[in-house]
Amino acid sequence: METVGFDVEQITFGPKHHLFGYIGQCLTIPWSEDGHYILSLEVGFHDRMPRPTDAARVVLVDTQNKNRIVRVDETRAWNFQQGTMFYWHPRAAKTRFFFNDRDPANGHVFTVLYDVGERRRVREYRFSDTPIGNSGVSPTGHAFLALNYGRLARLRLVTGYPGSLDWSKDHAAPGDDGIFVVDIESGSKRILVSYQQLARRLEKHVPESKGTPLFINHTLWDRSGKRVYFFVRGGWRVRRGKRINTPCSIKSDGTDLVLHEKHIGGHPEWGEGTKLIGRDGRNQIFYDVVEKRVTGRLGTPDVFPDPEGDISLSPDGRWFVNGSSKGGVNRYVVLRLADGHYGRTAAFSRGMYKGDLRIDSAPRWNRTSDAILVPGVTAGKTRQLFVIHMRPQK
Asked: How many domains does the chain have?
């Protein structure tokens, strides 16, 4: 029953372009803890990929002052799909947030912890031997996952940072590269799983994968910070040969690595416990990574005509949003899990984006689970941010 209603508010305006980046998976929330600020990047173009010399402004949208733009820093580690991997620090979400940056002198990627109150970088996580950047902060706030974005720029440009050093470029499956875990308090790092480990496992199931340069996308913490889901990929920039796209899960202590046979779509989301939300055929489904099977369904194909769309579960676990892209526009369906009531939003233009110039639907919830941040292209052809406000529910 379509009974959920919405009001839409545009919160950024031209002539500059504004974006948050990435999907609202796994409690990626653009709003500060008190709702005062929304994080955004500000750039002067959106018709090409960023070059190594192109810096993006790091800005705050002041929701308590008519959405005034507050410019606080800049970054040389960003792209149009994922932005700069913004995350408010779960243990200090009122004032501190993470973003990635790149040293223009040597191409080293690193992660920044910024304090809004102090208006300065309070810490930089730099590793000269393995220059890595944040790819997902644990909801517990104890650590963040990190990747070699130079490798991504080489093997899948849309998710990498041009001009970044790729220290493992000479190896298809290096033992000193993969997913890292960085302890936020101590600043120490460890490798969670290496490309070498993954290659050995892949070769048993996909023999033709041997020798294929591998990369990793979408490292997703579960809501407890105990498990990570990700994709190991290869062959995406080669016209011939088999494309590797294998979903994996692993415990955050490095044990219980599983290469899953069941693929549930490219942008899944963690539900509660060990369940993921994704796609199975025409259905939006729950998939249990421990039981390795589909365990339930959300809505129907009529409610979610594109279950492969970008999806996000609200922080309170009561609401689910699916954002689909078709015909040059993004549309959203919001479902209340308790009773199946749902609503559809109006369309948001995607402009002329295609290929590496992505403008995914990427819905991101606020902390009170009653508003969603989304991107769109305005009539003036600038890329801006909009908030979908849910009307009070009975």
From this structure: 1
